[in-house]
Every structure is written in structure tokens, then in C-alpha cells.
Specification:
The complex is a heterodimer. By secondary structure, chain A is of the alpha/beta class. Chain A has seven helices and 15 strands. Chain B has helices at 32-42, 56-72, 86-94, 104-108, 111-120, 158-168, 189-198, 212-219, 231-234, 240-249, 262-272; strands at 5-13, 16-17, 47-51, 77-80, 99-102, 125-133, 143-147, 152-157, 172-177, 203-206, 226-229. Classes of the chains: A alpha/beta, B alpha/beta.
């Protein structure tokens, strides 16, 4: 009952602006949409450049391979829109999982040339560590250390577990952009932030209350 | 370090959970969505639903259940039972499941594993295997793969099938011991360990949990990355927080589910008006 009251309250709030969930024809995008609906944020799953351009903020979610994701983004004309009409225009942008990886210049996966919004590269976890095989992809809940305070983490304790599914991880050239790290055999960058750009390697939409809180923080973030 | 996962399992027939949870409100007993929400709020790390429906028209009901669950819980969940084709898998994933669990269908047609991994990614494909101890010659692991809900022996060696599943692209393996299932005497640690040592993908122990100690054994001696729980939590002997407290105290890396505290909720409601 209480949750229902909260949901009604959330739904009745003055509608802000629309959030575009960028559909690049791969992965399960509906889970991010369902999480935003649950939080009461109006959103639209779209592959149309003009809809992304018209939105007030954009989320690039999903599971997928870097090469195919970039091919699809380019074919749909979305790479340009994300670079110019979202990121350069100063609109809040959130990348999740593959959505953090394609922000960098290049990925070892498919040797893909990516969006280049953040200088750096994406590398694969080592297959073995000290002679012991490392499970790749990592699938499961891992602790996220908040290495730099950021408002997107508001209300979320340090070292909270988030849900990861990844074989690769980003290495931004500027270490100051890293706001959180995690550990899978090696320490790796789990989240980055630069002005209006936020991105996480973990799945906010599958990380329980903590993930929902981060999503909600992003949706309320004013630049 | 990745936390060990506790995964409650719900058997669903014609849209109802077959074993009710005794401590939910009477009206909610048997409602898979209410049970999913309950375990989600309790801090389960993942959920699995087995559709034990026989007929095709009832499959549609399961898809509706998946859709309703996906609107309410924000952790991964998988759906298994009777998935035989790529289209079966696609329907479940589109309805909002994170993963599919394939079992007898994959034994009959191993290419289903590769096709699923190609279409949706390995992380979506859990190969679930029913295994049974056997004295049969030519099965090096001493365990045979059984299909059709534990009824039909296949002559396949459990360890070889696990390796084959990994090679074909399964993202995780669920080892369900027919011998241990329902005994509440603990997971089959031997075969779980044997497989966990041989593959590079996560291994889920299933069948036999009757007390918290059994989960600890699965994660340590059994080498499992995750453990399925059913009656131990359904009948109120233990709650998920009980199990997690015990495992954490025993030194196992376990996820602590966070809740928004009341101050946060008030703050959210204020800013909503």
C-alpha cells in the first residue's frame, strides 16, 4: 500500500522533461525503461535521431559487443547526435555497461573505434591471474568503491554491491574522471563522470534499490 | 571480488507458484509476482522461475507472469522449463527475464546453446543440468545427465556435458543433483566441485539445501559461485537475511542489499510534490 502511495505521488509530480533511452537494436532496453517508469520518470525508447535530439537527457544502456553497437549507432546516425546534440550541448548523459565502453576512443573488443567522447581505451580482463584462471565475463554482484564523491551516488553507501556482466572495462586517459572502481582479479574503473556525462560499467537497472537510487539521482541531476 | 549469490527458486504451474510461501498474506500465497517482490525486498541476489506447465496455451500465462515480475523487481532473474527453441528463449527475454535456463531442450539439441549465445549473448544462457550418481561404465565423473524432470537417463557424462555446454557458449552452469534434491541433506558437493574446477564460467549449486551450513559448504568445498534455495526459504525455516548473516559471519563475500532509509523516502516524496 505504502509503495502504491509513493508511486502515485511520484507519478503526480510535475512532469519534467523526457528522457531518451537510445535504442541501437541490440540488448534488452526495456529493463531500463521499466526502472524509470517505476521511479516515475517519463521516458521513451527510441532509435530516431530527432527524438534523441529533442530529449532533455539521454541514456545509452545495454548488453552487447562494442563493434556491433558502434556499427548500429553509426547506421542510425546516433553517434553524431550523442556527440553533438547531447554531450556537447550539455544535456545529462548516462551510459550503462556497453554504454560506458563506447564512450572511449577504442575498444579491444572487435578492435572497435568508438565515440571518443572520453579519451582512453577499453581492455579485456586477463584470462588468468597468478596462474589461476579468472572467470570472464564476470557475472554477478561486486563492490563499488566511490573513489571521488559525486552527487550521482547521493544516498548510496560506499562499497555497495552492484550487478556486473562484463568481459571488458574502460581505462580513461584522465584518471581524475574515475568516480568509482571495483575489483575482478585486477582493480578496474566502474564509473566515470565529466560534467554532464556519467557512465557506469554496472547495470543500474538490475542492481536493486542502490541501482534505482543512482538512476533516480541521474534523472534529477541539474547541470 | 564477486559476491556469492543466493537464488530462490519458484516453480510455477499455470501462473501459480506450486509451493506457497507460508509467511505471506493468505491472499498472496501462490502469486509469483508477490513472491518475487517478497524475495527481492528480502535481498535475494537473483531469482529463478521454473515453468512446470505442460500445455502450450499455459505458456502464454508464464510470459504474462514474467512481464509482471519484470515491472516490480530490479535484480536479474532467469526463467526455465520447457524452452526448446530460439523463439521460446526470445519470448521470455523480451518479456523481461535477464536469462533463460535451458535443460532437456539443450540435451536433445545442443545447437540451441550456441544459437542462444549468438542471438542474445552468453550471459543470457544458463545451461541447467539434472545429474544423478551412477555406476555405469564409461562415465568418468560417475554422474549421468538425466532429462525430463529426472525421469530419462541420457547416457551422457555430467562433466563432459558441462565442458561441452561451456564450449557451445553457455554463460553459466546450474548443477541440479537428483540424488540431493528434496533430501535437505546438503548439495552434492562432489560433482559441483568437479565441474567448478573444470570450467571457466560460474557454477550454480542446486538441490538439497536444508540448513545454512549447506550453502557454506557449496561455496567452499563445492566451489560454487551461486546456490539455489527453495524449501529452506519457502517454509520459513530461514530467511534470506538469516542465510546472508550466517555466510558473512563465516567469511563468505556476500552482497548486502541496501534499503532507502525512511529519511530518504520522505525526501523523495517531498520532492515529488
Amino acid at each position: 500500500m505504502l509503495t502504491r502511495v509513493a508511486q502515485i505521488l511520484l507519478a503526480a509530480r510535475p512532469c519534467y522533461a523526457m528522457i531518451a533511452i537510445v535504442d541501437y537494436k541490440a540488448g534488452n532496453l526495456t529493463s531500463v525503461a521499466r526502472a524509470l517508469e517505476h521511479l516515475g520518470h517519463p521516458c521513451e525508447v527510441t532509435d530516431r535521431p530527432e527524438r534523441v535530439r529533442a530529449a532533455d537527457r539521454a541514456i545509452l544502456p545495454g548488453v552487447g559487443a562494442a563493434g556491433a553497437t558502434m556499427e548500429n549507432l553509426r547506421a542510425l546516425g546516433l553517434d553524431q547526435v550523442l556527440r553533438d546534440d547531447v554531450v556537447r550541448a550539455g544535456k545529462p548523459f548516462l551510459g550503462i555497461c556497453i554504454g560506458i565502453q563506447v564512450l572511449l576512443d577504442r575498444s579491444e573488443e572487435d578492435d572497435a573505434s568508438c565515440l571518443g567522447i572520453v579519451a582512453g581505451r577499453v581492455v579485456r580482463f586477463p584470462a588468468a591471474l597468478d596462474g589461476r584462471p579468472l572467470k570472464v565475463p564476470q557475472i554477478g554482484w561486486n563492490r563499488v568503491r566511490q573513489t571521488r564523491p559525486h552527487r550521482v551516488f547521493r544516498g548510496v553507501p560506499d562499497n555497495t554491491h552492484f550487478y556486473f556482466v562484463n568481459s571488458y572495462y574502460p581505462i580513461p586517459e584522465d584518471p581524475a574522471l574515475v568516480i568509482a572502481t571495483s575489483d575482478h582479479g585486477v582493480p578496474f574503473c566502474a564509473a566515470i563522470a565529466r560534467d554532464n556525462v556519467i557512465a557506469t560499467q554496472f547495470h543500474l537497472e538490475k542492481s536493486g534499490a542502490a541501482g534505482l537510487r543512482l538512476l533516480d539521482n541521474f534523472c534529477r541531476m541539474k547541470i | 571480488m564477486i559476491a556469492k549469490r543466493i537464488i530462490p527458486c519458484l516453480d510455477v504451474r499455470a501462473g501459480k507458484v506450486t509451493k506457497g510461501v507460508q509467511f505471506l498474506d493468505n491472499a498472496d500465497v501462490g502469486d509469483p509476482v508477490a513472491m518475487a517482490r517478497y524475495y527481492y525486498e528480502q535481498g535475494a541476489d537473483e531469482l529463478v522461475f521454473y515453468d512446470i506447465t505442460a500445455s502450450n496455451e499455459q505458456r502464454g500465462i508464464m510470459i504474462d507472469v514474467v512481464r509482471a515480475v519484470a515491472r516490480e523487481i530490479f535484480i536479474p532473474f532467469s526463467v526455465g522449463g520447457g524452452l526448446r527453441t530460439l523463439e521460446d528463449m526470445r519470448a521470455v527475454l523480451l518479456a523481461g527475464a535477464e536469462k533463460v535456463s535451458i535443460d532437456s531442450g539443450a540435451v536433445r539439441d545442443p545447437s540451441l546453446i550456441a544459437a542462444g549465445a549468438r542471438a542474445f549473448g552468453s550471459q543470457c544462457v544458463v545451461l541447467s543440468m539434472q545429474v544423478k550418481r551412477t555406476g555405469r561404465i564409461g562415465l568418468p565423473s560417475g554422474h549421468e545427465v538425466i532429462v525430463d524432470g529426472g525421469r530419462t537417463p541420457t547416457g551422457r557424462d555430467a562433466l563432459q556435458w558441462a565442458r561441452e555446454g561451456e564450449r557451445l557458449g553457455a554463460g553459466e552452469l546450474c548443477i541440479n543433483s537428483i540424488d540431493a534434491d528434496g533430501t535437505k541433506a546438503g548439495y552434492d558437493l562432489g560433482i559441483t566441485r568437479m565441474i567448478a574446477d573444470e570450467v571457466g564460467i560460474p557454477v550454480i549449486a542446486s538441490g538439497g539445501a536444508g540448513e545454512p551450513r549447506h550453502l557454506l559448504d557449496a561455496f567452499t568445498t563445492g566451489g560454487a559461485d551461486a546456490a539455489i534455495v527453495a524449501s529452506i526459504v519457502h517454509y520459513g525455516e530461514c530467511t534470506i537475511p538469516d542465510l546472508k548473516r550466517y555466510l558473512r559471519a563465516s567469511g563468505v563475500e556476500i552482497r548486502e542489499a541496501i534499503h532507502l532509509d525512511s529519511r530518504d523516502k520522505q525526501e523523495l516524496e517531498r520532492s515529488a510534490t
